[in-house]
Amino acid sequence: MSSAPTEDRIQVRREDAVGVVTIDNPPVNTLGNPVLEALLGAVQSLEADPGVRCVVITGTGDKAFASGADLPEFVQMLDAPDEIAFHTSLTRRLFDTISSLRQPVVAAVQAAAVGGGLELALSCDLIVADEHARLGVPEVGLGLIPGAGGTQRLPRRVGAARASELVLLGRLLKAANAERIGLVNEVAPEGTALDRALELATELAARPAVAVQAAKRAMRIGLELPLSDGLDAEHTEFLATLASADAREGVDAFLNRRRPHFVHG
Predict the structure, then answer these.
(1) Of 174 and 4, which is predicted with more confidence?
(2) Which of 7, 83, 200, 249 has an alpha carbon within 20 to 30 A of 193's alpha carbon?
């Protein structure tokens, strides 16, 4: 394992082929501009690393995975439209970058994921939540709406009816209920969300990267397209994987009943 701090409040480390990004901005891991910029730099550095085949994003402490905007900073920006515009565009750039990362991304939600914290988790491919975590987008109670993807990514993940309930009523869900409606993929016993996320990430990293990344691209592109166009995108990605060394290795290993040795190319 190697470790390299990106910025005081963001740490990045490698565990074999898994890159781990940790938000360490106590007490509740707020996402002010410096943290957003550091997170962006961290995920971009991991995407550029050919040895990283999966990414895990988590937070420190037992209060919050991430808690969205730094409210005192946000209040100061209310009378400064240019500053608000910069903050929101930076947030969108970060979350879009995570969503479109070539590697799969697993969120290890070790504590509450509320507002922008949940929107950060929604930009990841898989979400593992601690059994005591609470998740939701309560912005309507402040006279606001979710402004970092909550009104768009949440319906795509849990469906329009469930998303309407969460967004319009601003309710927070227990982790078990979040799993029941498909908001999170797994609920981990107390204190083990990161461990479980790392297990999933290690499993993903062991699978042929060409296929995993092509599948992620096909699904992401298809969500934005009519079915027919999405099927075209899938077909293009399928043909590209056929040309890979790992596809030949995987099929040969299956036919000969042996363990495949993928080279991720």
Answers:
(1) 174
(2) 7
Q: Which residues contact 118 (CB under 8 A, 6 or more apart)?
A: 135, 136, 137, 150, 154
Name the one residue in this structure whose structure tokens are 């190319």: 265
Cα separation, 58 vs 39, in Å, equals: 11
Residues with Cβ within 8 Å of residue 60, at least 6 apart in sequence: 22, 23, 24, 26, 29, 110
Catalytic residue among 119, 190, 199, 249: 119
Active-site entry in 7, 83, 131, 139: 139
Q: How many CB atoms lie within 10 A of CB 95?
A: 23
Q: Is 190 a catalytic residue?
A: no
- Cα 208 from chain centroid (whole Å): 20
Q: In the sheet where 134-136 sits, what is the strand order?
A: 64-66, 112-114, 134-136, 172-174
CA dist list (Å): 121 to 51, 87, 197: 23, 18, 13
d(CA 166, CA 19): 31
Q: Is the pLDDT of residue 80 over 90?
A: no
- Any catalytic annotation for residue 237? no
pLDDT tens for residues 225-252? Answer: 999 999 999 999 999 999 888 888 888 8
